């Protein structure tokens, strides 16, 4: 700005050495005697255009006219006139003679003739672009003639340049003069430098130097003729050679022909005013012109007009010239979104146009706008960003996501709208891999812990799916603390059958992260009970998972049988686990709310995950849908007659291993740390001691110790609010300590006893109980789902029936 003010006051600069721009390669064409160079700023490297005009002396006629052009360009400002930045005049020695050169620095532009060749447009797209360009030039000429009472004098293709956004702009003001038509006494030339105009561009009265007729003509007479010459050169594809060539109208579009002839009327007074050209010609009414003009006056449109326009824009963009969409419409659209004048549907059009850019251009033109939009308080914008995150997520850097995007996205986890919570959850599938471990452990996992007990069943299910997908991005310690607890305690005990199915699939997909001890003592016992789940799809998944995990344990048994090291190492996953990502993206379509979890909604399993959004309005309240059975993974089982275990929304954790006997305790926790009592009674180092402890009758001191453990868990949870996952990691570590004996062969032999010890079944266990026999018992014991509905008693049941119900682990209510 200071440079511009200095130029306005002082005129020319000090010389070429003080020019704050670097002069680059010249273009092949320019107006008159000027040379058009590419250039860059010495300060920031920004591109510019530099025009130079040289003369043998300061009084050279071309230089005098050039100074007039510099003065006019500096003072005349219009959106369709070339923007002036800087000018200077320098003297250089060329041998023994002095050479004077004028330099003009403007915004970066390119000669129109070269830009047309570069674009290579054809057919209707070419005509649409020409219409847009002629619209711009006609407005510039109308501004000079009608508003400023100035005459350009030499409108032609050489006097038009094209900006980086493909806008046409008028320049070459060397001949520009005031219109003095009211001065009838004047006899001299109205255009002082008319000799610079090529003879082929001169109208009849100008070629005859009939200044009297020119002064009696309207101000636009000479420039209307110039517009006619420009139109001819555009459609002929060549420079005008002789004035007579203007009679050839073969290439002129029919919709423009009549106006073209009126522009070139032999009578100056009858020539068409450039302002009327825009109003009368149907040639200027096309999709490209209408679209750009709407965008330029967007602030004047109401919300209804904006919504209708932006909803049509994605399809309309396919019909417009691709280069114009990228270089003209895209910047307008990005600016409108940043400053709030565009509505949320505009985001869809922005991302579609951005998909046509190269990765480098995308990072410059699209990502800065997206980063700004994430800070928007407009809920519709936030929803749009999350819905389309798969289109731009890969282009985001880890630093962008961790520092600029996630802090804003995380607000959606606590939003009152279930729709927005669901979108926020699913966006983590793209964003989580780019988050730092500190952000994942300190923030993301805490939100996911709360979402696993969300009131919306779809959100609980998708949280389990997400955890399975991002497991590979967690560190080892976090995986030990989180995965089994989240999948077994929360997901497998959910009242929503797709949530239980998702828990099983998540366990199988992350099987490579579990060692043999965890599989045998924590995973298999929880999956086996789902083989009698009321939902057939859950039962099928449970059987498949049992087979897979048994195979893994068998592999470990065979390995340790040959190498008696006794180390419970991590097992390799079975084939097929790598498909979890596709499953999470296209698995469940879930709708409903907790009060309606018994409602059946049967949908296709191929529906994308993006459709699995809670929608209370779509849930039916009919009670007789229990007759329908579900077969796909997206079916919601009607559990009204056969209720599964307690919903995670109760948040009573694994402190109540006996399925409700102490259910009234610890019901205020919301983290995954409430499962700690599950691992308290682990197999001891000596296998003989384990078996003896299993057979020993339950004594009063042991019951007391069992009752005291949940209380200590509550205290630990309150003292450490930041650790939602509990002390599972340390307990897991201790579970790996074994004796010199081979524990795996022993587990294969007395399965019921080692399993009961591993699953913390420590209340009212008699020496003759057989847990697995109770599951496989005839209908009076395990059939008809009676044990599941009565398992959560408060201690009033006999020891054997209650113990069997504990192993089934499938009810949410009991008799106190």
Q: What does this molecule look like?
A:
- It is a single chain.
- The protein is of the alpha+beta class and 816 residues long.
- Helices cover 46% and strands 7% of the residues.
- The protein is built from 34 helices and 10 strands.
- A 5-stranded antiparallel β-sheet has the order 1-2-3-5-4.
- Residues 598-614, 750-766, 796-805 have a biased composition (Low complexity).
- This is Inactive serine/threonine-protein kinase scy1 isoform X1.
- HEAT repeats lie at residues 366-404, 523-561.
Radius of gyration: 40 Å
Termini separation (Å)? 83 Å
Strand order across the largest sheet: 1-2-3-5-4
Helix coverage percent: 40-55%
What is the percentage of strand-forming residues?
5-15%
What class would the helix/strand composition place it in?
Answer: alpha+beta
Please count the beta strands (DSSP E, at least 2 residues each): 10
Write a brief caption for the model.
InterPro entries: ARM-like, ARM-type_fold, CIK-Related_Protein, HEAT_type_2, Kinase-like_dom_sf, Prot_kinase_dom. This protein is 46% helix and 7% strand.
């Amino acid at each position: 700005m200071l440079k511009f003010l200095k130029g306005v006051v002082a005129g020319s600069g000090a010389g070429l050495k003080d020019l704050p721009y670097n002069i680059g390669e010249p273009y092949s064409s320019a107006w008159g005697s000027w040379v058009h160079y590419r250039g860059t700023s010495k300060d920031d490297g920004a591109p510019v255009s530099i025009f130079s005009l040289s003369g043998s002396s300061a009084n050279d006629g071309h230089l005098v006219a050039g100074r007039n052009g510099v003065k006019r360009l500096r003072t005349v400002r219009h959106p369709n006139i070339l923007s002036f930045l800087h000018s200077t005049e320098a003297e250089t020695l060329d041998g023994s003679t002095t050479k004077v050169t004028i330099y003009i620095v403007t915004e970066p532009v390119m000669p129109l003739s070269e830009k047309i060749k570069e674009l290579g447009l054809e057919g209707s797209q070419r005509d649409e672009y020409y219409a847009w360009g002629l619209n711009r030039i006609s407005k510039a000429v109308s501004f000079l003639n009608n508003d400023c009472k100035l005459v350009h004098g030499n409108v032609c293709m050489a006097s038009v340049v094209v900006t980086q956004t493909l806008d046409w702009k008028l320049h070459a003001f060397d001949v520009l003069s005031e219109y003095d038509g009211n001065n009838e006494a004047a006899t001299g030339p109205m255009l002082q430098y008319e000799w610079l105009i090529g003879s082929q561009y001169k109208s009849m009265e100008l070629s005859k130097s009939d200044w009297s007729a020119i002064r009696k003509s309207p101000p636009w007479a000479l420039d209307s003729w110039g517009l006619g010459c420009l139109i001819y050169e555009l459609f002929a594809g060549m420079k005008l050679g002789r004035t007579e060539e203007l009679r050839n109208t073969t290439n002129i579009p029919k919709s423009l022909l009549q106006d073209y002839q009126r522009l070139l009327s032999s009578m100056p007074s009858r020539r068409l005013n450039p302002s009327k050209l825009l109003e009368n010609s149907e040639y200027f009414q096309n999709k490209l012109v209408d679209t750009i003009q709407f965008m330029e006056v967007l602030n004047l449109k109401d919300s209804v007009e904006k919504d209708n326009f932006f909803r049509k824009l994605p399809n309309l963009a396919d019909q417009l010239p691709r280069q114009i969409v990228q270089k003209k419409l895209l910047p307008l659209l990005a600016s409108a979104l940043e400053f709030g004048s565009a509505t949320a549907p505009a985001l869809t059009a922005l991302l579609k146009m951005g998909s046509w850019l190269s990765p480098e251009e995308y990072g410059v033109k699209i990502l800065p706008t997206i980063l700004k939009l994430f800070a928007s308080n407009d809920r519709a914008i936030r929803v749009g960003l999350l819905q389309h995150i798969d289109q731009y997520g890969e282009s985001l850097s880890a630093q962008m996501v961790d520092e600029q995007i996630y802090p804003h996205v995380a607000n959606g986890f606590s939003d009152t709208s279930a729709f927005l919570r669901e979108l926020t959850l699913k966006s983590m599938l793209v964003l989580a891999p780019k988050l730092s471990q500190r952000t994942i452990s300190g923030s993301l996992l805490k939100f996911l812990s709360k979402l696993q007990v969300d009131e919306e069943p779809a959100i609980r299910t998708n949280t389990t799916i997400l955890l399975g997908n991002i497991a590979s991005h967690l560190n080892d310690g976090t995986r030990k603390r989180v995965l089994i607890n989240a999948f077994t305690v929360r997901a497998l005990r959910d009242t929503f059958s797709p949530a239980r199915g998702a828990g099983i699939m998540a366990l199988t997909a992350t099987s490579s992260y579990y060692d043999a001890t965890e599989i045998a003592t924590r995973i298999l016992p929880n999956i086996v009970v789902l083989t009698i789940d009321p939902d057939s799809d859950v039962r099928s998944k449970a059987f498949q998972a049992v087979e897979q995990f048994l195979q893994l344990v068998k592999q470990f048994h065979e390995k340790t049988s040959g190498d008696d090291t006794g180390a419970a190492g991590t097992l390799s996953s079975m084939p097929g686990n790598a498909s979890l990502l596709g499953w999470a993206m296209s698995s469940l379509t879930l709708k409903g709310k907790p009060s309606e979890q018994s409602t059946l909604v049967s949908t296709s399993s191929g529906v994308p995950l993006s459709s699995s959004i809670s929608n209370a309005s779509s849930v039916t309240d009919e009670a007789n849908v229990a007759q329908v059975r579900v077969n796909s993974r997206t079916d919601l089982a009607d559990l009204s007659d056969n209720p599964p275990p307690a919903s995670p929304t109760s948040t009573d954790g694994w402190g109540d291993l006996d399925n409700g006997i102490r259910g009234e305790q610890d019901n205020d926790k919301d983290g995954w740390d409430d499962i700690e009592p599950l691992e308290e009674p682990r197999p001891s180092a000596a296998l003989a001691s384990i078996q003896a402890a299993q057979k020993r009758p339950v004594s009063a001191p042991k019951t007391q110790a069992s009752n005291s453990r949940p209380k200590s868990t509550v205290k630990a949870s309150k003292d450490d609010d930041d650790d939602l996952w509990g002390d599972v990691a340390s307990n897991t570590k201790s579970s790996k300590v074994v004796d010199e004996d081979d524990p795996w062969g022993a587990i294969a032999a007395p399965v019921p006893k080692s399993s009961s010890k591993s699953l913390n079944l420590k209340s009212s266990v008699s020496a003759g109980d057989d847990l697995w026999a109770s599951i496989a018992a005839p209908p009076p014991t395990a059939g008809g789902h009676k044990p599941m509905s009565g398992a959560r008693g408060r201690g009033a049941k006999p020891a054997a029936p209650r113990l069997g119900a504990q192993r089934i682990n499938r009810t949410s209510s009991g008799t106190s």
